[in-house]
Amino acid sequence: MTVTIYGLECKSTRKARQWMKKNEISYVDRNIIKEPLTIGELQAILRMTLDGTEGIIATRSKIYKDMNLDLDELSLLELLEIIQKHPRLLKSPIIMDEKRLLVGYNEEYIRQFLPRKTRKIEWLKWQTKNNLLVEG
């Protein structure tokens, strides 16, 4: 599965890239300023969110405040067109593959992108370290 990191040049996006490299996970890096997301790509991201547009919009960003947007007054297409023109409205990074999505960098949640075998090995190591293995 191909992991894609959509992001701005910010600390969180750099941390996500470093984490992927450290864990030897290949990824595609996409600077959303230099290459804005298409409407179709934005729709694909939204299909995977739990919170819809609220999950991906950076409501604390300067551009969001300057634009004085009322998300409830916009149609979905209008909002997607605005995001396409103003990619800084998106939280960064947005990390995804075919099955998983993570918005923002979180040391715990990014682990979902580790291969299952790697997660299982780490879980067994943790159990052994903490004497939690159950004999059966």
UniProtKB/TrEMBL annotation:
Superkingdom to which the source organism belongs: Bacteria
InterPro entries the UniProt entry points to: Arsenate_reductase-like, Thioredoxin-like_sf, Tscrpt_reg_Spx/MgsR
Xref: Pfam families: ArsC
Protein family per UniProt: Belongs to the ArsC family.
Protein name: Regulatory protein Spx
